[in-house]
Amino acid sequence: MTNLIIFLVLMTLGYLVGQMAEKRHYKSIIQREKRLSGMPAIASRFPPTDKRFDQCLVTGNTVVSVDYFKRFIAALRNLLGGRVTSYESLLDRARRESMLRMKEQAQAMGADYVFNVKYETASISKGRKNAIGSVEVLAYGTALIVCDRGTGHEI
Amino acid sequence: MKFEHREIPEGINVTSVHPLRELAVLLSGAVVLIVAVVYILGLSAGFMAPYIPFEVEQKLAASFPVEEPESIEVDAYLQQVTGRVVEAMDLPEEVAITVHFLHGEKVSGDTVNAFATLGGHVVVFSGLLEKIPNENALAMLLAHEIAHVKHRDPIVSLTRGVTISSALGLLLGWSDLDLMGEAGVYTLLHFSRSMEQQADTEALHAVYKLYGHTQGASDLFEVINAWHQASGSGEGIELMQTHPLDQKRIKALKDLATANHWTEVGEITPLQQRFVDSLKGREGMLRFNR
C-alpha cells in the first residue's frame, strides 16, 4: 500500500512538473529559433568560396533528464513494444536546444553561417540502468566569420 | 551563394498523443499481460506440482529443524487426534503427517495460527491450541491442515511461487515496473484462497465422518475471528488476503453441511483434560520463568 502511494505521488509529481517544464522549454525554443533564424546552419562540408572566412569550431551541448512519469511510460513500452513517444519529445528538445546553443555561440563570434553541422547523442544513464535517465546531445559545426581585412586567411 | 534558414514545421519529430491516454493504454495492456502470465504459469504449476513425488517434498523439508515436543501430554493427544483425522481422510499411502506444536512466544507473541508445510509437517501454535474450545474444533483445524497436505498445496504454492517470481523477475526485473508485480500477487492470492476453500470443504467432510455431525467445526473460525478482532489485525479487504474472510468461511461451512444434508447439531466432544491441564501448566511455567 505504501508502495502504491509513493508511486502515485511520484507519478503525479512527474507528470505535472515534467509537463510544465516541457511546455516552458518548447516555448523558449520556438522563441529563440525565430530570433536566430538569420543564422543558417548547414550540413555541407564545403563553404561558399565568394568571400574569405575565418573558421572556428562552435558547439552546443544539452543534457535533458526524464521525469518519473516519462520513465514509467517508457518502461511499459519496453514490455509491449512500439514507439517510445515519451522519449521523443525529450530528444527533440535536446537536439533543438543544442543547435540553439551552438548558434548562439556562433552569433557571439559574429559568424554568418555554421557549416558542417553534426549531432552526437549519448545516453548519460549508460551502465547505471535506473539511477539516472538522461540524454545528452552535442551539436557542433564550423562557424564562418567574414574577414573584414579583405585578404583573409587561406582555407 | 546565398544560404537561408527555412522554418521547420512544429511537431515533426514528436508523436502527438496525450501522455495520460498513452499511460492508460499501456497500463491496461501491461496488467492484462502480467495477469495472463501469472495465471497461466500458476495453473501449469498447479497441474505439474502434484506429480512431484512426496519423498522429494520430505527431502526438501528435512532441511528444516524439527524440535522435540515440549510437553508429552499435549503431543500425545495431538498425535492421537491427528491419527483419527488421517484415517477419516484416506490419504495416499506415501503421505505421512507429522504434527508439531510450537509455542508462540518463540515466534511472535501469542500467534493464533497453524500451517501445513512441505513433507507433511503440520505446525500448530500454542496460542491457537489454548483457545480451542473442543475436540471437534481441534479436529477441524487438523483436518484443514492435513487437507492442504493431501492436496499437495505446500509444494504447489512453492512451485508456483518460484516459477511466477522468476518469470516476473525476467519480465520486470530490469525496469522500474516492480509495482506491476503486485498485479501478479493479487492473482496469486486468488489461487491460494481457492486452496483454503477446498481445504475447508475437505476438513468438514472429515469432521462429519469422525463425529457424525458438524457441530463445533465452525468454532475454530469463531476463535480465529475473535482473535482477529481483538488483535486489531482486522479482516480488511478480502481481495488482499490469502484466506477467505472468517464470517464467509463460517457461512460456507453451514451451506456445505446443508447441501450435503449433514446433521449440524450433535454432541460436542470435550478436549482431553490432561491435554488442557498441561497446556495451562506450560503457561504457568512460562509466567514463572519470566
Question: What's a concise summary of this model?
Answer:
Chain B: Its cofactor is Zn(2+). By secondary structure, chain A is of the alpha+beta class. Chain A is built from three helices and three strands, in the order H-E-H-H-E-E.
Description:
Chain A is built from 3 helices and 3 strands, in the order αβααββ. The N and C termini of chain A lie far apart (68 Å). Helix content of chain A is 46%, strand content 24%. The longest helix of chain B is centred in the C-terminal third of the chain and has 31 residues, at 181-211. In chain B, a hairpin with a 3-residue loop joins β2 (114-117) and β3 (121-125). Chain B is mainly α and 290 residues long. In chain B, 59% of the residues lie in helices and 5% in strands. The termini of chain B are far apart. Chain B: It comes from Amphritea atlantica. Chain B: Pfam families: Peptidase_M48. Chain B: Residues 75-256 form the Peptidase M48 domain. Chain B: Belongs to the peptidase M48 family.
Keywords:
heterodimer; A: 155 residues; 24% strand; B: 290 residues; mainly alpha; 3-stranded mixed sheet; 10 helices; 3 strands; disordered C terminus
